[in-house]
TrEMBL record:
CDD domains: PT_UbiA_2. This is UbiA prenyltransferase. It comes from Chthoniobacter flavus Ellin428. The keyword Transmembrane helix applies. It is a multi-pass membrane protein. GO terms for biological process: glycolipid biosynthetic process. It is found in: Membrane.
Length: 473
């Protein structure tokens, strides 16, 4: 009885729905951004060398990496049928061996070793020397695998749209094609967090607060600022997801995000993050210098949050609240409107409350004794987080009440007393948000929840009606 032809399986993009080199690089830069300065020197020494240097300085949590379950099920079935499986990857040997230990189906492991880059022609030559031409089958996913298929008996093509399989057919018999969903508009909309752009409507608040929404020049400037912040925010969301892959994959809901789940390639996320930032900067250059400085400060602060500040208790929620308030300040600079101290104080407290409720809902998902990955909070902190959040929300209403008593309000409204109706309405909304959070019915970002919640829309309409009754001058 003849021995079955061995099946050689690639790792990145084939068995895994991600690229381990990119994963290791992102983890290295997150832990020590100054390593970026060393990259050119490492690259001069060759691709195999840079792979080894990056792998030796990081430790990937291979258990968290997204696996292509269809491919895994297929090779496990082949193994049970008596077929010999080999993991043959261009990644560094350290990562490949760790993956082989995590998925113990492979009898042999071959990978880049610091001297030899086991990819493309290098992989093809190694397998031909090991098994002879046509003496193995190979599962791969990219154009770089074409030289390997030219030496193989059969090809298994993974994660492609059709072109690669047709090219592989000209080199050897294609045994199986593993289809996967293509990256479409819905995937990108989710990755860019388009629904979060609603937060940038805060840039119009100074314009509305000053009752100058009829000034088209200022309205146009605010609109430009809005688009700049939307692109910048999406760039930062991508950056945040890239640097937070490991902790997101252990989160009950964040693990389904496009980058964490492997539905969107890491390289695409990196390129999109850079392009969006460039476009947002170009728009910012069209606006006043003060806006540009505030915009730069926003990007710096939100980047620091993504890399480090989000891991520090209390400082993380203070940063989130500050980022909301910065939007208001930036909107004022864009429209050349001075933002009042009262507006800044109100926004700081109201958004601090919403930042706390976001953390509270995340803590609600943890089991007793667990620590939130990528954060410093424990399950036991829930009640304290709740107390601080509710207090912050009520302080925001107190600021509004004190503002209504100021003489300057009579200069802006004909019937300022009507504004008092806004206080109980806001108290109701804040109390309801926290009550829903305690009931476990708030499973999303509170701002996103409010956009989908009918009662929140009703509260918004009532507040607009109160402002209309007060009759702005």
């Amino acid at each position: 009885m003849s021995t079955p032809i061995p099946l050689c399986v690639d790792l990145d993009g084939t068995l895994l729905r991600t690229d381990t080199m990119s994963e290791s690089l992102l983890k290295l830069l997150k832990e020590n951004p100054l390593r970026l300065l060393q990259m050119p020197l490492w690259l001069v020494q060759g691709r195999a060398s840079i792979k080894q240097k990056i792998a030796s300085r990081t430790r990937l949590d291979v258990a968290s990496l997204p696996i292509n379950e269809e491919v895994l099920a297929y090779i496990e079935k082949e193994r049970q049928a008596g077929r010999k499986l080999l993991l043959v990857s261009g990644t560094d040997i350290k990562v490949a061996r760790a993956m082989a230990e995590h998925i113990p189906v492979f009898e042999e492991v071959y990978a880049s070793d610091g001297t030899r880059n086991l990819s493309g022609h290098g992989k093809a030559d190694m397998l031909r020397e090991r098994f002879g031409k046509g003496g193995f089958d190979y599962a791969g996913n990219a154009r770089v695998d074409l030289p390997v298929w030219a030496q193989a008996r059969r090809a298994l093509v993974v994660n492609e749209g059709g072109k690669l399989a047709r090219k592989a057919e000209t080199l050897c018999e294609v045994e199986k094609v593993f289809d996967s969903p293509q990256v479409g508009l819905r995937t990108w909309t989710e990755a860019l967090r388009v629904h979060q752009w609603a937060k940038n409507l805060l840039l119009f608040v100074p314009l509305l607060g000053a009752h100058r929404w009829h000034n088209y020049a200022e309205l146009g400037a605010s609109a430009l600022a809005f688009f700049a912040f939307c692109m910048c925010a999406s760039s930062v969301y991508l950056l945040n997801d890239l640097f937070d892959l490991e902790s997101d994959r252990y989160h009950p809901t964040k693990r389904r995000r496009p980058l964490a789940s492997g539905r969107l390639p890491l390289s695409s996320g990196m390129i999109a993050a850079a392009l969006l930032l460039i476009f947002s900067i170009l728009i910012a250059l069209l606006l006043p210098v003060e806006f540009g400085i505030t915009f730069a400060g926003y990007y710096l602060l939100t980047s620091l949050y993504s890399v480090r500040l989000k891991q520090i208790e209390i400082l993380d929620v203070l940063t989130l609240a500050a980022l909301y308030s910065v939007r208001v300040v930036a909107g004022g600079y864009a429209a050349r409107i001075m933002v009042s101290d009262w507006l800044l104080a109100f926004s700081l407290f109201i958004f601090l409350s919403l930042a706390f409720v976001k953390r509270f809902t995340e803590l609600q998902l943890l089991k007793s004794g667990e620590i939130m990955r990528g954060r410093g909070y424990r399950v036991a902190d829930r009640e304290l987080v709740s107390t601080m959040g509710v207090a912050s929300g009520y302080f925001a209403v107190l600021v509004l009440a004190l503002y209504i008593t100021q003489p300057l309000v009579t200069q802006l409204y004909r019937h300022p007393a009507a504004l008092w109706f806004a206080c109980p309405v806001l108290l109701y909304w804040i109390s309801r948000i926290w009550l829903l959070a305690h009931h476990g019915q708030l499973h999303d970002d509170p701002i996103v929840f409010a956009l989908k919640d009918k009662q929140s829309w009703l509260v918004c309409l009532i507040l607009l009606a109160v402002g209309a009754i007060a009759l702005p001058r």
